[in-house]
Amino acid sequence: MAFLEITDATKKFGGFLAINAVTFCVERGARHAIIGPNGAGKTTLFNLISGLILPTTGSITLEGKRLAKKKPHEIVQIGMARSFQKVNVFPRKTAFENVQVALIASRKLQYNPFRGAAELFRDEIMELLEQVKLGADSERRAGELAHGKQKQLELAVALAAEPKILLLDEPTAGMSIAETLSSIALIRDIVQERGITLLFTEHDMNVVFEIASTISVLHHGEIIATGLPQEIRVNDDVQRIYLGR
Ligand code: ADP
């Protein structure tokens, strides 16, 4: 049994086939990239895998458990966490509080601000914030942090649920070159250290080749190749279709 298995998944929007008979596996511990030109279907595939939308046909399983019809919190509970292209944190809460809310939600606790909740999980929160290099920013409001730091905070929020697999949709979108470089190193180190499987989409090929251990190429809703980075780099179809050579 593969860790994450996508079998013959299809998604139609009206008469338009956005995802067409997609089959591939993500191995446990892999850093698996989905690449492809704009409109190839990357976001749709991600939405299917994270249960945000249902496949028209086909199945998606994590450790043999079907993901279809599961609610977002159930998907988190079976070990999947996801971040989106657009930053998704509570801007008026501090970095500390953002991680705290995530921890409270993942442990299924009731949030009660009048019963000493402010200190709840302090050590764990600070450890997570330090891991994403935000230890010094814990009391700053998320909305006041630079874009790159907001993405780091999002990573801490995702890690709070102790996922087995982390889905990152264009993790370096909108970042400066310096932010991109430090973000790549951070993501790679954290997933390796914690033994988390990573599935990510990315349009920046430098980022892809820095992080990925496996790459799948999506084109017009179909997977046209899956392989090691060095195989994908020299694949004729990929060069022609994706890299425009
Ligand atoms: P990518 O992320 O690779 O740029 P998308 O998954 O966003 O590609 O889109 C794939 C195709 O599906 C595009 O042609 C897009 O217009 C279409 N599409 C995506 N979502 C919808 C939707 N909700 N309704 C209709 N068409 C959609």
Automatic annotation (TrEMBL):
Gene Ontology molecular-function annotations: ATP binding; ATP hydrolysis activity; L-isoleucine transmembrane transporter activity; L-phenylalanine transmembrane transporter activity; L-valine transmembrane transporter activity
One Pfam entry name: ABC_tran
GO biological process assignments: D-alanine transmembrane transport; L-alanine transport; L-isoleucine import across plasma membrane; L-valine import across plasma membrane
GO CC terms: plasma membrane
Keywords of this entry: ATP-binding, Nucleotide-binding, Transport
InterPro entries: AAA+_ATPase, ABC_AA/LPS_Transport, ABC_transporter-like_ATP-bd, BCA_ABC_TP_C, P-loop_NTPase
Keyword Transport: yes
Superkingdom, taxonomy of origin: Bacteria
Boundaries of every ABC transporter domain copy: 4-245
PROSITE patterns associated with the record: ABC_TRANSPORTER_2
Protein name: Amino acid/amide ABC transporter ATP-binding protein 1, HAAT family (TC 3.A.1.4.-)
Provenance organism: Paracoccus alkenifer
